[in-house]
Amino acid sequence: MKAISIQNLTVDYGGQVLAVDDLSLDIPSGQFLAVVGPSGCGKTTLLNLLTGLVPLEKGQIDIGGRQPTAGDPRVGYTLARDSLFPWRTALENVCYGMELRGVPKAEREARAHDVLKQVGLDGFAGHYPKALSHGMRQRCALARTFCLDSEVLLMDEPSVHLMHKPKSSWRIFCCRCGSARGAPSCSLRMI
Ligand SMILES: Nc1ncnc2c1ncn2[C@@H]1O[C@H](COP(=O)(O)OP(=O)(O)OP(=O)(O)O)[C@@H](O)[C@H]1O
Ligand SMILES: [Mg+2]
User: Fold this and answer.
1) Separation between Cα atoms, residue 130 and residue 160, nearest integer Å
2) Is the pLDDT of residue 33 over 50?
3) What is the pLDDT of residue 14?
4) pTM
5) Is 168 in the pocket of ligand 1 (CB under 6 A)?
6) Does 20 sit in the ligand 1 pocket, CB within 6 Å?
7) From atom 4 of ligand 1, which residue's Cα is the shortest distance away?
8) Can you point out the beta strands (E) in 29-103?
9) CA distance 76 to 144
């Protein structure tokens, strides 16, 4: 079954920059896909389209029978920047997405502690982002996304600051963490 279908996708940012040029791609359910390309080739643009952050102008995107919309609970997205709130602890940052989705406090904190442990941050739940390294902040941001149990998991350069795991074991790491409470139907990782 196709989880994501992309047909003849083109993005030219108002005729200024051709960031995506007639891309067609089907991503089956259960697939872990990495997209590799040089800086500026359009990887982040593609993720932003899949999450509805950049409006679709030319081409079609189908995620489980629907067009992308911002805030779609079926889609989890970790940005290339860790984008943690500086005034929230690691635990509170990880809980943020679950708060928005109305997960009860006790359940979201239990889930956050569990996923923080999986990404190697047990013992740092009470630390603020300024007291974490770049890699730790990135893992915290990944934990926030993993906690959402999204059907589709999108990650932009998730391993760029990470030495916690050898990069070769990333597929296993992400699948295990991302599927702690049920496997995502597909994962798309930009390197
Ligand atoms: N909001 C925007 N408005 C105009 N042009 C943009 C916008 N966002 C990105 N671009 C342009 O689109 C092209 C692709 O950018 P994008 O960020 O998708 O690349 P990337 O492959 O993710 O690069 P990197 O590996 O450096 O993160 C670049 O030429 C960039 O200047
Ligand atoms: Mg990018």
Assistant:
1) 19
2) yes
3) 87
4) 0.85
5) no
6) no
7) 13
8) 31-35, 58-63, 75-78
9) 9
92: which residues sit within 8 A by CB, 6+ positions away?
Answer: 85
Sign, CA torsion 21/60/42/171: negative
Here the CATH number for the domain that contains residue 173 is 3.40.50.300
Tally the domains of the chain: 1
Residue of 13, 4, 113 whose CA lies nearest to 63: 4
Mean pLDDT of 123-147: 93
What is the domain extent for residue 10?
2-190
Mutate to test the pocket of ligand 1, among 10, 13, 160 (most ligand atoms within 8 A of CB): 13
- The protein residue whose alpha carbon is closest to atom 3 in ligand 1 is 13
Radius of gyration (C-alpha) of the chain in whole angstroms: 17
Q: Residue 36: what residue type?
A: V
With a 6 A CB cut-off, is 40 part of the ligand 1 pocket?
yes
Identify residue 43 by its one-letter amino acid code.
Answer: K
Q: What is d(CA 93, CA 85) in angstroms, rounded to the nearest whole number?
A: 7
Mean pLDDT in residue range 120-146: 93
Ligand 1 nearest-atom number relative to CA 47:
18
| Protein residue with least CA distance to atom 27, ligand 1 | 39
